Amino acid sequence: MTPLPLPSPPAGERMKVRGAIIFALLLILAAPLAAASQAPYQGPLIDAHSHLPNPQVLEAYVAAMKRHNVGKVVLLGVGGVQKQDVEWIAAAAKRHPDRVIQGAPVPDPLGQGQASKLDALLGSGQYRAAGEVHVRQESRKIDRRADDPAFGQVLEVAAKHGAPVVIHCELTAAASSLEPALQKHPKAVIVLAHGGSAEPAMLEGLLGRNPNLLVDLSGMHYQRTPRLASEKGPLDPAWKALIEKFPDRFLMGIDVWAPRLFEPATLDRLLAWTRRILGELPPEVAQKVAYRNAARLFRVE
Ligand SMILES: [Zn+2]
Question: What pLDDT is recorded for position 8?
Answer without folding.
Answer: 55
